[in-house]
Each structure stands twice: as structure tokens, then as C-alpha cells.
Fold this protein.
Amino acid sequence: MRFLRAITGPIVTMLIGGLLTVWLVRQAPGYGTDPAELDGRWSAESLAALRANHQNHLTVWRLYTGYLKGLARGDLGTSLAWNRPVAQLLGERGWVTLRSSGLAVFLGWASAVVVALTYRFRALPFVSGVSRSSASALLCLPSPAVALLLCIVLRPALPQLIAAVVTGLAIFARVLLPSSAVLSASESEPHVLQARARGVHSIRLVIWHVLRCAAPALLSLLAASVPVAFGIAVPVETVCNLPGAGQLAWLAAEKRDLPVLTGLTFALMAVTLLSTSLAKAWSITGPELAEGRTA
Amino acid sequence: MAAAIGLSILAACSFAAGWICPSGYAAQFRDAPAVAPCARFPLGTDELGRDLLARTLYGMRLSFLLAGSAALVSSAIAGLAGIAAGVLGKVFEQSLEACSNLLMSLPWLFLLLLARALMPLGMPAETSVLVTFLLLALLGWAPAARVVGASAQSLRQSGFTLRARAEGAGNWRLIWHQLWPNLRPLIATQFLVLLPGFILSEATLSFLGLGVGEPLPSWGGLFRNLEDYSAVAEQPWRVAPLVLMFLTVACLQSLSSEASQRKT
Amino acid sequence: MKGVSLVLLTALQLSAAGHWGGELRFAIYSDPKTFNPLLVTEQSAGVVRYLTGGMLIRWNHATQAMDPELAQSWRVSPDGREIRFELRPDARFSDGAPVTAQDAAFTFHTLLDPKTPSPDADAFRLGGQQVTVEAPSERVLVLKFAQPIAGVERLFGFIAIVSQRTLQSAADPSRMPTAGPFHVAEYQPGAEISLVRNPYYWKTVDGRRLPYLDGIRLKIRQDRALEVNDLLSGELDLIDSVDPKAFARLANKGSVTAIDAGPSLDSEQLWFNQNPSAPLADYRKAWFHSPEFRRAISLAIHRDDLARLVFDAHAQPAAAIVPASNRAWNNPALKPPPFDPNAAQKLLFSAGFRLDKGELRDTAKHPVQFSIITNAGSSSRERLGVLIQQDLERIGIHVRLITLDFPSLIERITRTFDYEACLLGMVNDDLDPNSQMNVWLSSGPSHLWYPGEKTPATEWEAEIDKLMVQQSRETKTALRKKAFDRVQEIVAEQVPVIFLVGKHSLCAYGPRVGNASASPFFPQTFWNIDQLYIRAGHP
């Protein structure tokens, strides 16, 4: 029963998300258009047939229920722009993005937390100054421009590596300042102050007390970094000509490719829900395990 | 102190753009396209002969007003939603979670396109970009709200909060006296992350026709030119808006950090 | 080495014998939507078709005449209703199967099937005619038309001959046999397409089958930011169309050859929405319907500045529909309108407009303001718009430049007609006026300012309709030219479309490429792909 209740929420969220995606794309200007229409050689009849192919006459509800029926059969539809099964496209390109950005998100987040911990608890103003300035600089630099620069400087490095570096740096910049604030708040908890006053070693203090308090917020930062990383992947993969899910999303949005966009949304929602659930689970069970160990 | 002075100078320059560059941001000196910095044009000109200093200063005004307001609104919503989720119980927390998952995953770009399509073509450029930034503000709060919510929940379990509850403090008192002072630095950092993010978003959105319309300058529009890296290598002064944005964010960050240190 | 400026290369077509072997590399800008050569609607698929497709006859960029290919000879009947091809006996697909008239007939039957959505097919069905296709023998193909189609030969230059086997394998392009110089060996979606030489290609030199190249690698690059860099580093061998700003940089590098091949068929233009059902205020419609208003706008635009500032002088003020590079159809009597804001104002005053404190107003005192839409993401078009904004501001007209993403723009100009003026480019692959029938015919769906008119809205449009139909059926070239010259004159007088600039064709080759011969027409750099080679000493 508890399990059912636990999964109902995410499933309902995904269903609502899918419906909203179909509505947004269907209602957006330019849905059902094709740049090929501007070819002056088309006759009026052929143009009408071309336009009819784009299913402009179907309502949002019919489009969505049709999509869900296909999904139930394992068929994610066929891309209007690429003329290929959406499942195939997502499989190929999703894997490219996962390879380039997956580890980068974690490393970017982890390095930001470690740096924040280091300068907070070692009272290293120089490190603090440099890392904050770096984070500010990275926040101000457009990710596509950084990617472009790295593509030139690091030639002939693999575009996956460049995308990973850019994603990692961008996540680092976005996580450093908030994690520093979270750690600062945890630092001023009464039990932490008391432990410090009692002379508890700083590493033990940090691991068993400060991080335990800050864990839910820090793990939320990690979970929130996943969709942010995807957002960064969109322009970075496009600039690096890396055929990943980010580039797919940009092109599909340009071409109003509804099946691809719906599939991408479901995939992104699944990954986001999974990461937030894991983060939440760990933030609860982690301290409990720690309690068990110390008891 | 230095940060406050720096910010004041930047703000003063942007508001005094009309005096510093009397020719304005739109005037085209077609006999002087893409010139290097000189006495007549301290930051040179762009390909259409427009004064880059004027465009940088006016752009700073527009970008900071719009992106700053959007970041402020977004941070405020994130703060309110996060605190409410942390304090008001499981139902609100789960609703926030679902809402933020939707906001983080859906292609909201199409909402921006739809909004643009609904606006009449005769609408002034300033109004249409205001609507774009307002939508960005309303859509951009989700990641920050999750972090604030998680922190609020932790703080709800902390010793001083439990003590305050035991002494009979209600939700509003808890929020105002216990949670808000501890979450303020976190919300401030979200503002500092969102501000440059929104300015840069405008550059990306201009590829879809959702940016600031010509001839109005914006930093997003100026940053778009930086993607022509060869031109940047030949004309390095074009990175001036980027440098100014970095200085502004660094000053704001420094002020924020000083404020939170003074509090402790 | 300075960039080489050439107007048109004519004499250097087949230079010294090339070096055999090697792989050529260049970029295409999207995945081809299809590998079926009969369904090509976009450029990437068009590139693959050009490189792999065997045509009966093909247009030679140097001579601007048709050359025999799979057909060794052809004949158009005097009444223009029949064309007869005699196929080569040695033409074969890449799997060794002979190319027969039956394959050619199959190709045209499939193409002309109403279920096949193809703009190439529509070109054969001008005026709704039926086409009869016959293959009376293994090597003879005959097509018969109910009405003559002027210049019909050039249409065959776009049709790649396929067999049933070809179309059955269209989903797996590496298994598609083709009759052109190359066939697809491997397709990595989103990454690249590898082509290898057709071992049975019909063209030979010194008894050896062309092409010189062993293969071509088409790199799929959605973003062009790094293309110039890749050419300079040797990762790419050529760029088919170079951005004008990048051209100057390439021209200063000794390692590459940057070529301005002269005026292309592409132009930029501005037109006003004259659709009576457009959701615009009546007074605005009245402005846009006024030829004096349109002529005044045209006179107020500084075309030289557009060419100089946006295209680095690699463009020239446009006079009319057809640029000078299209020698067969250009009307030399037509000149670009001069930049004359005073004359523009006089015209506007004659039409009842007045200046009020520097702001132009119409007879009902409405301030003359309108919006121009154009596609976002094109920096050159945005710059054009900004320059036009300033030019019109000088005569008291306030213009709002609105950039829209391409699908939104297409919707406005083809479906909702919710726009006032549009700034867009015209891209042409075909020199013949028949390719623009649906643009100039008032009933045409691509009749920019008012598509699909039920009856011609004005007398001059009715005259254009008559002349376009007349030239499409006229078999005598001189009479066709006369009719189309008159169409160009009417367009220049009435200005339904304000032609701004004609762009030059800019391209670049790396040092490995031999027998390079740039053309102003697509494909600029590899139109003679079977004769390009990799120089000795450059693996």
C-alpha cells in the first residue's frame, strides 16, 4: 500500500507533465509548419497535402491519448523531423548525453561542496576569495562560448569531454554559493556550537554533525542540478556538434517535433523524479544509518 | 566597502549613459564600422557603426533592471514556496515537489513562444521583453525552492526551532524569527546565481526571437556577438560587457557575504 | 595568398589529369530527412542526392548548358510536347545492375504518382498536366506532355534515376544502389555520412572510371561556428558557402583559397502584406496597397550600405528578380533603384502623406509606423533590418523590427497572414523562370504578398499571370525571354517585392583539393565532384 502511494505521485506528475507538453507544443506558434513549404515549386494541391501530414487537425487530447496508447505498446512514435522511431533517437542520443554530462554533474556538485567545506572550516580566506570569484566568473560566462573556446583550444579533444568539462564547471558555479550558505546555516546549529565548544575534532564535527544537518539541502542541490545540466547541455551540444539529447531537444523545439519533445519530457521527468527521490531517501536514511552506527 | 563603491559607480554610469554618450545607442556612424577604441568611440563601434560604449551602458541599464527584477521575483517565490513547504506540512511539501518537478522538466520555451505570438506586433519592444522576463521569473524558481525547502525542513527539526515551538511560537513567528534569518543568505545566493543566468538566457532566447528587439541594446544581445570567436580575438574590447557583468556579480556577492558575516 | 575573386570560371573545367584516391571531407548542416532521392525537400538531402544520384542529363555550371549523363543523347520534339532519351549502354548502378529505360520509367512513374509529395514532381505538372512515360526499349525513354513545358530539359537535372531495389532500401541507405559517382557506405545519425565511389560509374578518363576520389565524408554540423577553424586546421577540405565576415579572415590565410564566385541566385527582399483578409487596420492595408508607398520605401533604402556593412561588399544592390549571374534570364535594362530619400518623400507627399514634426502621417493623420518580421538567429538579416529601420526613420517612418523563430514566421506569412512587412531571403537552385511560377502567378501558393488569389487582385498581376503562362509554354527561347523580361519590368514598376541585395557566392577550399572550380550556383564547390581530387602528398 505504501509502495503504491509512493509511486502514484510520480506517475500522476508524469502524466500531467506529458499532457502539458503536448498542449504547449500544439498551441505554440508554428506547429505543423515545415520550412519546405517556402519552396516556390510546390503546387497548391501538394502544399495542402504536405500540411495535412502534420496532423494540425488533431486536438491536444487526441494527440495525447494517441501517444499514451503507443507508449503502452512500447512505441514512442516516429519523429516528424528525422523520420525515425523516437525510441531509437532517444536511446542513441540519451546515452551520449549521459556519458558526457552524467558524471560531470556529480563531480561538479561534489567539488563545490568540498571547496565550500574547506574554506568554511579551515578559515582560508584566500581559498574562499578565489573560489567565489571563480564561481562568479563562471556564472557570467555563457556556456556555449566556453564550449566553443575549449573546442578550439583543446582540439582534437572529444566533444564529449568538452561538454563534460563545461557542464561540470557550470554546476560547480551554481552549487558553490548555495552550498556555502547551507553549510553556514548548519554551522550555527546549537548542537554544532556545543560540540565545537567541547573540542570535538573539526573533521568529526564536519562529517557527523554539519554534513548530517546540511545533507537534505545539499542533496536537493544535486537533484536540482540534473535538469539544470540538461539545460546547459542544450546549447553546449549544439555548439560542439555533439549528437546528444540536448542537441536533439534544441532541434526538436525548432522543428516543433511533438513526438520527440514528448519523449524527451518523459525521459527528463523520469530522471528528475528518480534523482529527487534518491536524494530524499538518502537524506533520511543516511542520518538514520549514522545514528545507528554511533548508538 | 569597495564592493559598495564599485556597484555605485557601475549604477551611476548606466544611469548617466545619456550624458556619457550623447549620440545614443541607436545612431549608426556608417563611415566607421567595427573601429577600434579611440577618442571618438572609447569602446569602438559594432559592424553597423554604433557606439559600443553607449550600447554597453544602456544595455547594462536594461539588463540589470529586467534580469535583476526577474531574479528578485524568482528568488522571492523560491523563498516563500520553500519556507511554506518546510513548515506547512506534508501536503504542501508534496505539492511543491510535484510543481517543481514539472517546472524543471517541461519545455517551457513553448510558453514563451506562445506568449510572443499572443502579443500584438505593434507592442513596444520594451513591453514584450518585460513579459518575457516576467515569465522567466515565474518559471525559474523551482530549483531554488527545492533547496530552500530542504533547508527549511532541516531547520524545523533544529534545537532552537523546537525550543521556540515548545515555548508556544506559532508558524508565522517561527518563520519570521527562526527560519527567515537562517535562510536569507541561501535565498540571497540564489539571487546571485539567477541574475547572470537570466541575463545570459536573453542571449539564448534571442535565437528564438524572444530577446530584446533592435535597436534596444542588451547585454544578452552583446554577448551573442562573442560567439564569433575570431572577431573577439581581433577585437578583444568586445568582452567589456562580460567583464562589467562579472564585476557587478562579484560586488553583489561581496556585499551579500559581508552582510551575512555582520549578522553572525 | 589573397582571396581569389572570380566572376565565373569557364575554361578551367577539366584541367590536368587528377591524382587517384583519397577522401574529401566537408560539412552538411543537418541530418538528411530522407535518402529517397525522389522526396528531397531540404538541402542536406539535396547534397546527398547530388553526390550519389545519376541523372539522365545534368546542368554544367561552367557552360550553363545541359550535359549528357546516363542519357548519351536526348531530343525535344519541335512542338515541345515530347522528350526522348537514349541511355548509355554502359550505365550501371553501384551494385553492378545496368541502368535501363525501365528503371528510368519506374523512376518517373513513382515521382509522378499523386501520392509522392515532391516539389520536383510538381515542376513536371505545370498547369495540372498529365505526363505519359514510356520505355519502348531497354535504352529509350520517352516522356510526353499534354502541353509543352518550356526549358523542360533542365528539370531532368534534379531527378536521380532509381531502381525498385533502390527505393526498397531507402530506410538503410548503405544498401541503396545508386547510379551517380558515389553511394552511401555508412550513416551515423547526427555525426556523419560516408560515401564511397561507385565502381561502375559511367564516366571515364584515360580508360579509367571516375571519380578520382575514393570517398567523401559528410560531417553533420548543426552549428557552423567551428567550420572555418576546421577548414584552417585541415579537418575539412571545403566550405560551400562562407559567411562574409569569415571570408575576409580566410582570404588572409595562405593555407586556403577563398573564392568570391560572383553574384549567386540568392537575394534578400522585403515585401508588404497585401492580403485583404489580413488582420490589419484598413488604413495600414491602404498604405501597403499603394504602389507610391512601396516605391518610396524602396527609394529610401540605402542598398549600397546594406551590401557594404552586412555583406562586406560581397553583395550588390539588387535590381530585379533575376541577378546578373543568370545570363540567360537577366534583364539588363533594369537597374537597382537609387538611394534617394528626397524622391521618396516627394512620392509619399504625392500620395497624400505629410510630415508632422519629423513624423510621417497619412491623410487621416495616422502616424506611419509598421513592423517588419524576419527570422531570428540570422545575424545578417537582423543587421539588414536595423539598417532599414534607420533609413526609414530618416523619412519619418518608425519601423519595429521583430525577429521570430522560423516556424512562427512561416505560420504568419503562410497561414494567419498576421504581419505587416516581411524581410526574408530567396534561395534559388534553378535559373529557369518556370521554377518561380508559383511565386509570380497570382493564384500561386508562394505568391509572397498575397498567396492563392482566386482572381488577380490588380491589372498588373493579371498581366504577369498571362505572361508567365505564356513563357512556360513557349518553345522559342527569344519569345520566352521577351515575356519574362516584361514580367521583371512590371515587378520593378509596381514593387510588390522590394529587392534589396543579391548575395555573392563565397566559398573556400583547403590545400588538398585539386581541380577546384567554384561556381556561383549550388553546389558551388563540388558541382564537378567526379573531377575533384586530393593532391599528391596530401593523404
Notes: Chain B has twelve helices and no strands. Chain B has one domain: 2-21+69-263. Chain B has a mean pLDDT of 85. The CA atoms of residues 26 and 145 of chain B lie 40 Å apart.
